[in-house]
């Protein structure tokens, strides 16, 4: 009987601390230009999430791509981020866009997006890819596909 009580006790503790849901992606906001150089335009942004789980973990953002006006322009980089349990949190994202991408003559016209930015008009920014969420040695991938119209403040 004692073994059954101990087993159910461990089961209850394990179940209550397990990952029931993925961190919920809320929005990408706070876009800003960090640096403009001859070869690279560096942007910063924050990706906002909510963790409904009782356990914390780590998020890796190495598989996210940035599309501006439907043209693939950059890969997102970020440090490994420690996710707090049962809280909203923001991951700072670093986006490095090669300057030549803005001046390519493509069907989608990234150059038009730059002019819209300079004129404080909305630009369609899409984050697309996978987030890796690691908890207690277990890895789970979450698909991100979020599009927002933003105004980048110079």
Structural notes for this entry:
The chain has 154 residues and is an alpha+beta fold. The chain has a single domain, classed as Immunoglobulins (Immunoglobulin-like, Sandwich). It contains 3 helices and 8 strands. The protein has helices spanning 2-16, 99-103, 110-118, and strands spanning 24-36, 40-50, 57-68, 71-77, 81-83, 88-98, 123-135, 138-150. Strands 1, 2, 3, 4, 5, 6, 7 and 8 form an 8-stranded antiparallel sheet that branches.
CATH superfamily: Immunoglobulins
CATH topology group: Immunoglobulin-like
Morphology: elongated
Q: Please indicate the count of domains.
A: 1
* CATH architecture type: Sandwich
Give the helix proportion (percent range). 10-25%
The low-confidence parts are: none
Percentage of β-strand residues: over 45%
Q: If you average the pLDDT, what whole number results?
A: 75
Structural class: alpha+beta
Most strands sheet: 8 strands, antiparallel
Helix run count: 3
How would you spell out the order of helices and strands? HEEEEEEHHEE
Q: In angstroms, what separates the terminal alpha carbons?
A: 69 Å
Integer-rounded radius of gyration: 20 Å
- CATH class identity: Mainly Beta
Number of strands: 8
